[in-house]
Amino acid sequence: MHGAQWARSDRQAALVICLVVQQRLVRPDRLLAHWLTVTRSPRRPFIDGVIRDVCDGVHSLGELDFARLCRARGLPEPSRQAVRVQRDGRVYLDVAWEDIGLAVEIDGGHHGLALNPVDDALRQNEVVLGATRVLRIPVLGLRLDAERFLDQVVRAHQQLCELPA
Predict the structure, then answer these.
(1) Contact at 8 Å (CB) between 13 and 7?
(2) Are residues 104 and 126 both part of a single domain?
(3) Quick one: DSSP state of residue 165?
(4) Same domain, 75 and 152
(5) What pTM does this model have?
(6) Residues 83 and 30 in one domain
(7) Which domain holds residue 122?
(8) Could you say which of 2, 13, 67, 139 would form a disulfide bridge with 7 (CB–CB 3.0 to 4.6 Å)?
């Protein structure tokens, strides 16, 4: 908690919060419980929002950015780290609107390394075969051209909302 408050920037503070949960150094419920005991913080509104997103399943800065951008576009809150069971185990989708069958994967740099693209493709294909549309957004794309990617997410959300049940 102190690391986030002492960070040089909001971005660095968010990274500290994401990392301690992502690396399982602290459970989200314990992080939130401790945060609720903090009475003074120069970054209170910012840190509060980040902690609540992280406790809701955000695991990376890219996912945190995506959540903020979705809110700005008026999209409903999605599920985070949505679980799908496949033949070879469980798969966690970064973001999913379960009710309409839309998922978004925010791909950090490690997704392009070694055999990760093959594994990602196999997982995505299985999810799609299970009737969920998956959009992929490289974190670099989110930084360089967020508007175009969010246009696609909004368009997919609208299209799927219009489909007859």
Answers:
(1) yes
(2) yes
(3) -
(4) yes
(5) 0.72
(6) no
(7) 64-162
(8) 13
